[in-house]
């Protein structure tokens, strides 16, 4: 054994990657126990195995100097492959260690061990002796497949070739050296020789080569010359690990060209684990035990088909069953302290002022499933803590610092860690751990009294006894378990003789020479040197000056009240006068609204008829009020209260101003008013029937629809003379003349009316 170690030890080599945290070691299997693989894997003494590498602690260990050794357990590459600890074609073991340099400096140390195969296994046949009955009438070229040997070594070190002995007096030849198949090259004759004893030898590719042998007895029979034939030489099937028991996995099928009993086939399987069974008649394969992908991922089963002839013939096929992973394992959570000890779910004491980035725990998560079913992510229910990714399914729990813990708000908290895999459906596991916060001195003192918005402290100069207490400070601190011991300092401007005791009493020790205002800035400190400040205004004044100022203030107040009273009376008088003036102007404006209307005549010819002379004389008497350049006008006013009433006013105007005016937007120039009046009277006197409509009495002097209670002297308007008989025309003339004179007399005396200026002027 010592000689073997001396030979193998130089084959151990280490290759450091560019990353100093990863090393690659090449070793051969069958190393002696306590073999040194790598000395001092880390510069720190705080190195611990990660949970993902726990399965390798059976074969490797770290000594006190952090050197990596093999244990007394045998290093067998084939055993690692069988246990799925490494890939059979490339056996790579990954050992992960957590190395801690300081509280905030941790890293992952990875050692990759590649185990190279040595030729330590010989080829082995399952049966050392097999008997093969063969009919004598089988044709030349008939092939008999044989069961291959098994070599636990891999690659070139596994079975590479077969040899058949003896070669003399043997009608069979081995036609394939990688998979044994006997081929009949000469005809058989049972009567000449009824059996043959052959030796099949399997060789591996080692140097020197190792071998295994099997004895084959061939019995020549007289009947049944066709063995069963499978429709496939290799059957492969994938089933999920949660497949139910007694489920049919698949059905195999073989045929036999013989007839009768020689063609009836029975099936059997070689399954040492008894996980599967086969129906010997139908070839249906059933699942008999629960599968577990995490334990066994693949099954290789040999199937035999035998006929019922004499002699009995058989054939072989291979069945490979792959187990697929199902997400049936919940994640496992392991929480360790900084020193590597297992966390026992006891409450953790944590000062509230713990700095950001401090590591509290290491968290390792494992999931026995593979692929996405074994990939896990973790979350926390509190943002004040943070999960820092270390390596696959490994985290450190650290203080995030945003927001900070506050003992004054909460004294304890419960953290929920939830880890969920990526399977469908996903499975998760939750761990709870409790944190008890401890108080830190993180709050400055609170000044309860005096308040910052207090008024100025006033001290009379004459009556204040010295020393005098200015104020008493009342201080509190929100930190619960911190001593309530406070210190004070102050600055006063301008200078003043003050003292501040340890209990917070501010004292004026002596009066200053100059009275006035002072500002005292006081700062309070707790035992942690956290502080708070307040500014206190102080006023030192003289009582005598205050009395004089108060008297002067009261006298000024009385004088101001008297002046205000007189100003108010004056403003009220001015407003009343303005109101009366506005009312007077509005009334005058109403009374002055008037317009002119032509309604008179100047003079008539005295050679007219006698009945016209009398009316001419009456009108001439009225013309004496005006000279020859003036004419008499009569103004027609409408009544605002009754639109049917009108009244006439007398006005003397210049002759060239006379016009016929209608306030309803109807204006036209008067034509020869005197001639118009003369024609009117002439027509009335002569009794002419065909009178021009423009010469009606309304066109001469306007409407006379006057109300009876206003002007009783004016009669109702007479009817037009156009439709009157001749006997009445004389009477109508007299009535019109009389009415004209009455109207003239009315406007002559200018009787007052209440009519508006919405008038028709003629």
UniProtKB/TrEMBL annotation:
Q: How does it sit in the membrane?
A: Single-pass type I membrane protein
Recite the UniProt keywords alphabetically.
Answer: Calcium, Cell membrane, Disulfide bond, EGF-like domain, Glycoprotein, Membrane, Repeat, Signal, Transmembrane, Transmembrane helix
Q: Name one GO molecular function term.
A: calcium ion binding
Q: Residue ranges of the Cadherin domain? A: 8-125, 126-230, 231-333, 342-447
One of the record's GO cellular component terms = plasma membrane
PROSITE patterns in the record, alphabetically? CADHERIN_1, CADHERIN_2
Q: Which SMART domains match?
A: CA
Q: Where is this region: Disordered?
A: 612-631
Annotated TM spans:
559-586
Biased composition regions of type Low complexity, renumbered to the chain:
612-623
Q: Does the keyword Signal apply?
A: yes
**GO BP term, pick one:** homophilic cell adhesion via plasma membrane adhesion molecules
Pfam families per UniProt:
Cadherin (PF00028)
Listed name of the protein: Cadherin domain-containing protein
What is the originating organism of this protein? Adineta steineri
Ranked from the top, the taxonomy reads: Eukaryota, Metazoa, Spiralia, Gnathifera, Rotifera
């Amino acid at each position: 054994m010592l000689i073997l170690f001396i030979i193998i030890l130089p084959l151990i080599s280490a290759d450091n990657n560019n990353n100093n945290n990863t090393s690659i070691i090449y070793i051969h299997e069958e190393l002696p126990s306590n073999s040194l693989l790598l000395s001092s894997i880390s510069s720190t003494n705080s190195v611990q195995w990660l949970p993902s590498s726990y399965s390798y602690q059976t074969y490797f260990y770290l000594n006190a100097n952090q050197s990596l050794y093999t244990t007394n357990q045998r290093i067998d590459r084939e055993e690692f492959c069988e246990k799925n600890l490494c890939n059979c074609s490339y056996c790579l073991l990954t050992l992960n260690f957590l190395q801690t340099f300081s509280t905030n400096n941790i890293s992952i140390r990875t050692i990759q061990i590649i185990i190279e195969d040595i030729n330590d296994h010989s080829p082995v046949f399952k049966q050392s002796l097999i008997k093969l009955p063969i009919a004598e009438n089988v044709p030349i070229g008939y092939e008999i497949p044989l069961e291959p040997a098994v070599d636990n070594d891999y690659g070139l070190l596994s079975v590479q070739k077969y040899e058949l002995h003896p070669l003399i007096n043997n009608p069979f030849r081995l036609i394939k050296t990688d998979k044994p198949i006997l081929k009949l090259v000469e005809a058989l004759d049972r009567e000449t020789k009824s059996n043959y004893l052959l030796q099949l030898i399997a060789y591996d590719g080692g140097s020197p080569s190792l071998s295994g042998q099997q004895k084959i007895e061939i019995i020549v029979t007289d009947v049944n010359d066709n063995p069963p034939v499978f429709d496939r030489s290799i059957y492969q099937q994938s089933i999920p690990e949660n497949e139910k028991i007694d489920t049919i996995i698949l059905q195999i099928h073989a045929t036999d060209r013989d007839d009768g009993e020689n063609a009836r086939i029975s099936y059997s399987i070689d399954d040492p684990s008894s996980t599967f069974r086969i129906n010997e008649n139908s070839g249906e394969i059933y699942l008999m035990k629960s599968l577990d992908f995490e334990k066994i991922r693949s099954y290789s089963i040999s199937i035999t088909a035998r006929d019922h002839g004499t002699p009995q013939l058989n054939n072989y096929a291979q069945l490979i069953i792959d187990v697929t992973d199902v997400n049936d394992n919940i994640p496992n959570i392991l929480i360790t302290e900084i020193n590597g000890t297992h966390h026992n779910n006891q409450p953790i004491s944590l000062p509230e002022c713990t700095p950001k980035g401090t590591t509290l725990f290491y968290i390792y998560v494992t999931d026995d499933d593979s692929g996405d079913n074994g990939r896990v992510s973790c979350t926390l229910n509190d943002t004040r803590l943070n999960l820092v990714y270390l390596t696959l399914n490994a985290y450190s729990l650290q203080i995030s610092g945003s927001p900070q813990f506050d003992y004054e708000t909460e004294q304890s908290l419960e953290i929920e860690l939830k880890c969920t895999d990526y399977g469908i459906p996903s499975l998760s596991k939750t761990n709870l751990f409790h944190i008890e916060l401890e108080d830190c001195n993180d709050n400055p003192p609170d000044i309860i009294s005096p308040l910052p918005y207090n008024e100025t402290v006033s001290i009379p100069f004459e009556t204040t006894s010295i020393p005098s207490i200015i104020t008493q400070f009342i201080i509190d601190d929100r930190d619960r378990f911190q001593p309530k011991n406070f210190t004070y300092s102050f600055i006063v401007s301008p200078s003043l003789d003050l003292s501040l005791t340890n209990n917070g009493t501010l004292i004026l020790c002596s009066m200053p020479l100059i009275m006035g205002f002072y500002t005292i800035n006081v700062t309070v400190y707790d035992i942690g040197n956290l502080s708070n400040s307040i500014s206190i205004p102080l006023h030192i004044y003289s009582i005598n000056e205050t009395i004089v100022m108060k008297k002067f203030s009261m006298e000024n107040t009385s004088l101001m009240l008297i002046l205000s009273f007189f100003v108010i009376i004056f403003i009220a008088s001015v407003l009343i006068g303005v109101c009366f003036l506005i009312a007077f102007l509005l009334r005058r404006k109403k009374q002055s609204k008037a317009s002119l209307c032509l309604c008179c005549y100047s003079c008539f010819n005295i050679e007219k008829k006698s009945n016209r002379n009398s009316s001419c004389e009456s009108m001439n008497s009225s013309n004496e009020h005006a000279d020859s350049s003036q004419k008499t006008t009569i103004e027609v006013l409408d009544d605002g209260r009754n639109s049917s009433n009108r009244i006439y006013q007398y006005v003397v105007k210049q002759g060239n101003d006379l016009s016929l005016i209608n306030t309803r937007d109807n204006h036209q120039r008067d034509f020869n008013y005197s001639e118009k009046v003369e024609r009117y009277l002439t027509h009335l006197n002569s009794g002419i029937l065909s009178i021009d409509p423009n010469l009606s009495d309304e066109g001469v002097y306007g409407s006379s629809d006057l109300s009876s209670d206003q002007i009783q002297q004016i009669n109702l308007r007479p009817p037009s003379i156009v439709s009157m008989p001749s006997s009445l025309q004389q009477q109508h003339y007299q009535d019109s003349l009389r009415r004209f004179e009455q109207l003239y007399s009315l406007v002559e005396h200018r009787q007052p009316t209440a009519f508006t200026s919405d008038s028709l002027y003629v």
